[in-house]
Amino acid sequence: MKEQLDNKIEQHVSPVEDKNKPNVKEQGFTANPGDRIADEPQSLEEKAKQIAVDSADITGDHITVPTYFVVEYPDGEKKALHHVKDAEEISDVIRQARLDENGNRIWW
Q: pLDDT of 27-80, one tens digit each?
């Protein structure tokens, strides 16, 4: 028994130098690269083309999620809402959607 204690193996779960590196949050990374907001300003058109997710889900169905949802307000203003950062505002816009007598969606 004493011999077993003397031969104890110490094993680290992660390299010691990793403790000094900034973590993912500190580096500004996200689990999904499509969630990142560009450091440089982008036009509405550039934001409209960005894709956050473009892959199969757990059921095998292919899904595509835009990084930004472009919304046009009643006054004609267009705004690109980030699918994570502006999720609450996106929900508010969707709640305001209505259908006309022809089944067309009316947003305001």
A: 666 667 777 788 889 999 999 999 988 888 899 999 998 999 999 887 889 999
Read off the amino acid at residue 68. Y
DSSP class of residue 20 equals G
Angstrom CA distances, 45 to 10, 24, 41, 49, 64, stand at 55, 29, 12, 7, 18
Number of H helices, E strands in the chain: 4, 6
Stated as kind and residue range, the H or E segment containing 8 is none
Residue 53 backbone dihedrals phi, psi, to 5 degrees: -135, 130
Q: What is the distance between the alpha carbons of residues 73 and 1, in angstroms, rounded to a whole number?
A: 76
Q: Would you say 34 and 53 are in contact if contact means Cβ atoms under 8 Å apart?
A: yes
How far is the C-alpha of 108 from the C-alpha of 101, rounded, in Å?
A: 15
The string of pLDDT tens digits covering residues 75-97 is: 889 999 999 899 999 998 887 77
